[in-house]
């Protein structure tokens, strides 16, 4: 790992521990530090601490969950003006925690992270919910099926509201399956953040940056076949023939019946003369 960029090494150290010990904000800031090498991690921890202290002062005496949510919403969205970025959703800055804190705008998962970090600091832990096409959070109270949409000013949702939101996202009726509302762990959370960056950079033809996102996903999930495939394809476009060959061969070995097996084999055939 010593040949990796410093921020990547720090990211790896942060995630190389049991799930319950992974500090999401720290890992997210190390993701951002690859984009901003001079980023001061502690400054953003201090910003989150300050926000949490100000929320703490506003909390009601009776700390019922819905009252806690109401207090955090008031502070984040009305006092500070945090909001979902509807004008430039695919701006990569929406995926960097430092930018989201500074600009007070982001996408569902990064706004959820800010919300979760503040909630954790005021002893109201919340967890991420990776609903398809969107991202929600919920209090870490097993019997309490209440969801918060950090992208839409902390709107409180129940299961039937999640069904409505899902239909809105896809523009048609989509069956809300129980798995859609299951909590996700820190590794899945970080992988989803990195997948957003990966897709943004692929769409912008920024191969090296998309490669960096894929490689960090593979630090989280070393055996993820689709990430190995995608890394192989990016290596192919970069002309890194041995690396592309290794990844694509590994992908086919892991998923021999993949729908794209023929296309991947064709890529391997094109690579072969360059080895």
TrEMBL record:
InterPro entries for the chain: SirB1_N (IPR032698), TPR-like_helical_dom_sf (IPR011990)
Protein name: SirB1 family protein
Signal peptide: none
Homology family: Belongs to the UPF0162 family.
Species: Trichocoleus desertorum GB2-A4
Domain Protein SirB1 N-terminal positions: 43-194
One Pfam family per UniProt: TPR_9
